[in-house]
Amino acid sequence: MRFEVLTLFPEMIRDSFMTGITGRAAGRGLVELDTVNIRDYAVNDYGSVDDYTYGGGAGMLMMCEPVYSAFLEAKRRLGDEKTRVVFLTPSGRTFDEKTARELSGEKGLILLCGHYEGIDERVIDEIVTDPVSIGDYVLTGGELPALVVMDAVTRLIPGVLGNDDSSESESFNDGLLEYPQYTRPPLWHDREVPDILLSGDHKKIDQYRMRAARQKTKEVRPDLYEEYIKKRGIF
Ligand code: 6GU
Fold this sequence. Notes:
The chain is an alpha/beta fold.
């Protein structure tokens, strides 16, 4: 997988992605990160990439041409392949694990990070294939959402996680939240690790974990629980 990120803050993307598990994946050649600074395609020597909106209203909009030029540079670097263009915007479709799985099968992805009050609609219509939001709240820019999407996609690439099935058992794969987990010591601040987990009886432990996962999901995400019950036809 090769990510090409179109952004006004390339150092924010690189510093964050190159830290931790995603950075290690890049170091091992399992994923590549490349950034294109939209500022490098400013329309004048002052570095302008934004302008006032037609029709009035507060704030500035990113202009078509700098965004389009940055996109063409990313396409050129990817060898002009048919690459999906993910635009990070609060008006996009909500990002989820299914979308992450779908995107992780691509050879390359272009991610477009907006800033100011948004981007001129015409360049969005021209280049964007997948408008994506990460939830119902508003952020100052698309960089953090782009990092969220890249993280979720990268951890699904084979070999990225140490244990090849740890991306399988985690939240959202069978539609339930992860069961609670414990490590040493067995007693901490008057709180005990559930006895079953110390029993060594793996069949009992699996049953306990399944029950705990269902109970937790029912409590904190009744919407997910409902879906889970419907899909499985249990109870
Ligand atoms: Cl993708 N962008 C911005 N600016 N805010 C958001 C978002 C994206 N997703 C949720 N809030």
